[in-house]
Specification:
The protein is an alpha/beta fold. The chain has ten helices and 15 strands. The two termini are 34 Å apart.
Length: 330
């Protein structure tokens, strides 16, 4: 199969629609990461996404819809706090989980009675979803467990020969996957942290919980199980308070002939002597936006990435730490 990277226009959207309606998959941009989309009503098409990615069959998908789509077609009940959250943060990097009406393929939710729905804010994603005109099930457009893609070239690197079209929407500005919130209880409960923080959700909904997957339980959201977001080179993760140990490890590796790079935020980069640094930037938004981009850059340059956690670890940085910890997990 010949894989093409195409700019988003009427021709590429028409071709994408033909592929989706005929059971195929198309990679498309969002404000967070690139998604690999298929018709959510078509069980074979959804199952094919799992095959293309090598994704475990118990790791549920998110359904993406355009801003004007009536989600009551898909879910049985939307609580008042979910309506308030939608008004405040959608379109945007927030996925909400509801009780499903069972209209989409059971493969989307891996047999669960819930459905995760997202309305991306990326202009290209909205054009794509409106052109398709039906719910699109989409995980990140990469090989399972690899670093999520934030450029069309990242998608091509992973999925060349496996899909026909990658719609190019530029570098994703958000940089980490959407926050996932369970809206089936009395209060919203975060299943996966992201750019919409717990504090932001509680400010609108009045309260917000946070869920931790228990051993033996089925994952209720993507990103809750398994190693994720991992570069192809070796990795190590040091706490912020151990940054001097990280710097020492880097020096030992360089002396031993190991091509090591330090991955850290701008403040830490300015405080250490290492020459080979993957600088994530200064602000929380910059760090989130650059995390996957720099991990992808690092795997091309380094034998070993020595990551140093940022000092701040709440708010948006909770989502960054979630990804960084999984990326460096043995």
């Amino acid at each position: 199969m010949h894989t093409r990277i195409l700019q988003i226009n009427e021709d590429s959207l028409n071709e994408s629609k033909d592929i989706i309606l005929n059971g195929g998959a198309v990679a498309f941009p969002t404000e967070t990461v690139y998604g690999l989309g298929a018709n959510a009503f078509d069980g074979s098409a959804v199952e094919n996404i799992f095959k293309i990615k090598g994704r475990p069959c118990d790791n549920p998908l998110i359904v993406h819809v355009h801003n004007d789509y009536d989600i009551s077609n898909l879910v049985s009940y939307v609580p008042e706090y979910a309506k308030l959250l939608a008004k405040a943060y959608l379109p945007g990097p927030l996925t909400m989980v509801y009780k499903s009406k069972g209209k989409v393929s059971p493969a989307v939710s891996c047999g669960l009675d819930t459905l995760a729905i997202r309305v991306p804010s990326h202009k290209g994603a909205q054009e794509f979803l409106k052109h398709i005109g039906l719910p699109v099930a989409a995980p990140s457009a990469n090989v399972s467990k690899h670093v999520s893609p934030v450029t069309a070239e990242h998608v091509f690197s992973d999925l060349n020969g496996k899909i026909e079209i990658i719609l190019d929407g530029g570098k994703c500005v958000g940089g980490i996957e959407s926050t996932v919130v369970d809206c089936t209880s009395d209060i919203p409960v975060i299943l996966r942290s992201g750019l919409i923080t717990r504090e932001m959700i509680a400010c609108v909904a009045g309260d917000c919980g946070e869920y931790s997957l228990k051993e033996g339980e089925s994952a209720r959201s993507p990103g809750m199980k398994y190693k994720h977001y991992s570069p192809l080179c070796e990795t190590m993760l040091f706490d912020f308070c151990d940054r001097k140990k990280a710097e020492k490890k880097y020096e030992e590796c360089i002396a031993a002939g190991v091509n090591a790079y330090i991955l850290c935020d701008g403040a830490t980069a300015n405080s250490i002597k290492a020459k080979k640094i993957l600088n994530l930037g200064e602000s929380e938004a910059e760090i989130a936006s650059n995390l996957y981009f720099k991990l992808r850059e690092g795997e091309k340059k380094a034998e070993l990435i020595i990551a140093i956690s940022p000092e701040k670890q709440d708010g948006v940085m909770a989502g960054v730490m979630n990804r960084l910890t999984k990326a460096c997990k043995n």
